[in-house]
Amino acid sequence: MKKIGFIVNPIAGIGGKVGLKGSDGAETLKRALTLGAVPESGKKAVTAMRELAEAQNLFELYTYPAEMGANICEEAGLEYRELGEIASGHTTAADTRIAAEKLKESGVDLLVFVGGDGTARDIMDAVGTDIPVLGIPAGCKIHSGVYALNPKTAGKLLREYVEGKVRETIEAEVMDINEELFRQGIVEAQLYGYLQIPRETKMVQHLKSGRRYSESVSVDMLSSYIADIWEPDTLYIVGTGSTTAAIMKKMGLPNTLLGVDLVWRKKVIASDCTEKQILNVLKSGKYNHVKIIVTVIGGQGYIFGRGNQQISADVIRMVGRENIIVAASKDKMLSLFGKPLYVDTGNEEINELLSGYIRVVVGYEETYVTKIM
Amino acid sequence: MRRDYDTYLRQFHEAKWDEELIFELSVPGERGILVPQPDEEIVNEVGNGIDRIPETMRRKKLPELPELSQPRINRHYLRLTQEIMGMDVAPDICEGTCTMKYSPKVQEHMVAHNPGLVDIHPYQDPDTLQGLLEIYKKTENMVCEISGMDAFNFHAGGGAAACYLGACIVREYFHSKGDDKRDEIITTIFSHPCDAGAPATAGFKVITLMPGEDGLPELGALKEALSERTAAIFVTNPEDTGIFNPHIQEYVEAAHEVGALCYYDQANVNGIMGITRARETGFDLIHYNLHKTFSSPHGGMGPGCGALGVREFLKPYLPVPRVEHDGERYTLDSDCPQSCGKIREFLGNTHVVARAYMWIMQLGAEGIKEAAVCSVLNNQYLMKKLSEIKGIEIMFAEGKRRLEQCRYSWGPLFEDTGFTSLDVSKRLIDFGYEHIWLSHHPFLVPEPMTLEPTESNSKDDLDELVCAIREVARECYEEPELIKGAPFHAPIHDVYCDENNTLDKIAVTYRQLQKRRAAGTIHV
User: Fold this and answer.
1) What contacts B30, CB < 8 A, 6 or more positions away?
2) pTM reported for the whole predicted model
């Protein structure tokens, strides 16, 4: 019988919807809570863990108390054994590291964790490549290749693992934004190390692809194109990332690299907005035409729900699918190896609305048509 | 005793002569030919000859040409030819998508020696070119029959040029109808890159359809892209993966429904010629590569011919001059007011058309169909054997048959051993093969390798190649040092160094080489 360890970072992704680009550090958490953020990682974890309910007799589950695991197991209808102690409501990165070490000592075959890039780094510090792990994505930005595509596929992969169908493991990269470069305006994920993950390439996120020479050419071309067809009397909601930043640069406008900016009549009217701020502007009734510009998170194929949670399901509903411009370099699109784009807005209805085919701007007067799942 | 090609690894070694550059063999004053001075009588009649050339066009200094004797030149070039891998000494199955078939030597002899093909000039009166024009017209009639199109033009120098010509005709057609709104062309990602590039050059916006998860083009994606802005779809089929688009008929119908034209890039026609016709599928414009499919060899960017075929209603837009036949004489007609103009001077590469004519005449209708069937059969055999080799994978459309070629992936090999398809390519040279063709851009298949056996290769040829590839794959897993240093049986090792791939490390003329040496970027 397999032993599975399970850890939840309860505050992973909390900064996303309120525009804080992350959740690392006590100060950020405090600000996120003040801005009205609600912890959601637990919800995502339940979706994954429910997939295991019917295979309960194939594994033993070990976890940490309360919001670090036990609550979720309870909700997913799973039997579990609880280890360790925590100060509920006040957990930190240190708790993640201690929990991972404890679970490893208790001899688990696979350690499942819920979080983002920061969590992956904590897990790596604690267990290294001694035991295989699998991430359930719940963080703001996920550059690491240790996460399943989404909570649902994480559940499916876990199910296959406990059923003995996935035996091989593979080393996957743990990455995080290089903060030094980020302050200089460059998004570049830095490699922190490796974790062992079950090998099932269809269900695990591809590593965010690196920069190449042709990428900058493609981004320059698509930026010129979007700048040339820019409509002055349209409100633009400009999403996060270096591609949208390049478009803003082409327009001669200031930009928040990891934030959402609003542009009206070729002027930035609000920078680094929260979901609430965007909704307030939309509800003001002043803007008849609104467009959203977003990019694809390289290697993963997400256009909503990764690093741009401010453009929430409610925002998308108000703007409408036909007013979404997706722009990405050819390299980014090709690194998906024919896989579709993904959305994870946290709202099934909007995910459904967004699914289907979409044109992605990849150059000057050049588009790729691809599917959104 | 006959060899067992399933297990036979050819012991090959490339020649090495360490030959000098011809400029560095030069000895001032040494001569290959002593040109006699003109007789006094002639000088009295025409002067010194030089004076007849306008002053501004005359050289001020003598050209710095190498000065060598005849035997030295002869030896020099023969040594160089021994150091290269000619298409006649090694099977070129590895050059996938290129349809490297055997061009019968009788054809080569004719285009090199037949006075009707050699001793002619484009400015000759058409009345004195009747034989050549007859070959043009008859070849046109035959490819019309093979494709179902109503007219062909042989001017374009290659497939991409034909594609460009097609895009220009599409533009002219809609322009003449007063419909200038149509500025979009749709293609698929596994179509040839020119199906996107050529229309873009002709001024169209290009929409590229990504494949579905199974690697096949999806009808839904096309329908999403089609609109009253669509001028045409430009598609290759079978695509470079070797997969025949199962929705091709629906593609054409959907495009026609919105009033768009349909362009069929038939560079990959070898497996379906004589079996399906573009006309019955509903296409309006197509191109064949007369080089490759119709047997002209084209390695090393040799002269080609993109034969562009159209339906009757597009005939007025074809380039000029057109070869016509009035029942008695062949003429060149340039009086075509709606023509899109010229893509090339004169009639294109005449010897490629002549080879195609000879090839079709030798095979006949049944022979052409048989060639297609053999090319597909050969590919099935090769795929079956290669798919049993550890490290190779055939991506996308699992269980779907490929036709005449297949894009393989060394992805599993790379994941297991770190060796790439280029490493495999380098080691294959040691067994007497040319490098392998990886993929057209973009590289959607990781560590790609595209092979196309055509109808020209026998089972023994295929077995020998499979044996070599199997051996290279085994070495990757078990004797990696053999791969790292390869090729061992060729005088130059590891030419694929990225650091050599910069402009200041490349010299294509002697003058450039001297500059690079002086700048210290090249040290040979």
Assistant:
1) B67, B68, B69, B72
2) 0.76
